[in-house]
Amino acid sequence: MNPDCPKCGDRNFKIWRLPNLALIHWILNPGLVVNELMLGQRIPKEALECKSCELAIGERSYVVCPHCHEMHPSRVWAGKNGFRNWLGLVCPSCLRRIPCLWNVFSLLILAVTSPLWYLPYRMYFRDRQVLPPAMSTTPTQLSPGKVFIRMATFWGGFMWILMCLIPETLKALRGQAMSYDRLVTGLVVWALGGVAVGGFVSYYVARKNGQKHTTKP
């Protein structure tokens, strides 16, 4: 049975979990490896969206801790709290980790690189005490346009530098000729990839900031 909504007292929730298409996209999109492994952005396996509240989706979405069963607003992990969550989201009440989804390509990279990180994780990071995120009392309203520009620029630029500029620079340092065609082609490819990632994230933000219709289903 669903818990009561803290704002309206109703139990009319939409449950966000697999096989939701947005969550499937998070799992299967190789571009989101950067978000997970480098930025530490994680998505809970299950979230609740109240269908009775006449609020923006970001103000009527909740994550329930499976350990203490505390119901937390999803905006606890908005803004800067949305980053550096490599080991999962942390419950502000019991400080235990909330199960999150993994991108399949992130898991593949982790499997290949496991000899580098497994022992430090096992011996130190796995049981390390973490501080609970501090939630702002003021709702954060992000502009989808700004999110699109920043994500497209950051992600596309980062991937171009990592996959094209650095390898070609290393070739030049070894005395080999740089491939300017590869630099230009890579710039186009990763710019399009940045547009795709920025479009997905800005669409999510637009939904999160959008108002619910006043007509009940």
List keywords for this structure.
217 residues, alpha+beta, two-stranded antiparallel ribbon, 6 helices, 9% strand, disordered C terminus
What does this structure look like?
With 217 residues, the chain is an alpha+beta fold. It folds into two domains: 1-136, no CATH class; 141-217. 44% of the residues lie in helices and 9% in strands. It has helices at residues 21-28, 33-38, 104-112, 114-125, 144-173, 180-209, and strands spanning 13-16, 47-50, 61-64, 71-73, 89-90, 97-98. The strands form two sheets. It has a four-stranded antiparallel beta sheet with strand order 1-2-3-4, with no helix packed on it. A hairpin with a 6-residue loop joins strand 5 and strand 6 (97-98). Helix 5 packs antiparallel against helix 6 (180-209). The longest helix is centred in the C-terminal third of the chain and has 30 residues, at 144-173. It is globular and about 70 Å long. The two termini are 21 Å apart. The model is unreliable at 136-140 and 211-217 (pLDDT under 50).
Nearest-angstrom radius of gyration? 20 Å
Shape: globular
Strand arrangement within the widest β-sheet reads: 1-2-3-4
| SSE sequence, one letter per element | EHHEEEEEHHHH
Pick out the low-confidence regions: 136-140, 211-217
The chain-level structural class is alpha+beta
> Proportion of β residues?
5-15%
Gap between N and C termini: 21 Å
Fraction of helical residues: 40-55%
Integer tally of domains? 2
Q: Tally the helices: what do you get?
A: 6
Mean pLDDT: 78
Tell me about the largest β-sheet. Answer: 4 strands, antiparallel
User: How many β-strand stretches?
Assistant: 6
